[in-house]
Give the backbone structure.
Amino acid sequence: MTTADSRSARERIIDTAHRLFYQDGIRATGIDRIIKQAGVTKVTFYRHFPAKNDLILAFLRYRHERWIAWFRETLAREMANGGTLPQALPATLAQWFATADFRGCAFINTAVEMADSLPETLVQAREHKQDMMREIAAFLPDDRQGAREAHKLALLVDGAIVMAQRGEKGAEVLSLLRECVADSLKR
């Protein structure tokens, strides 16, 4: 069993920042709050992260690793259960949308919040979305594989995420996504 005390200070800081940045936003989350909730000293914090921007970029790398692994595994499981991509993508997203802590895409949120003051967030957001497209492309039918088709489907996924973030998490959004993915694959 992992407890806060068994994790390194760096792990506790990143995990705390991940939770707070995603829950409340980056600008709304102060370093002192992260230090307190992570149970570290200021000296320890600044030894690992000399500036908040360093922590923001570490948060995005951490979030990317966790989310892409979840997305890959969940989409693969949905496909293995006899699903097609038009069924599996909405089913995968439905699981995420139903979580109590769902706040939309951390990369879209961070890009909107931080792009002017920390342009590196746009680079990480772009890389994240490219990886998401590669995960989707892996499940495209052989005759439909390619960056353009995966890009179109990723656009649909991002639209569904934004709609869910603004409160439209219901069956209608997922049904529309299913229909749009199916239409895209018919062409």
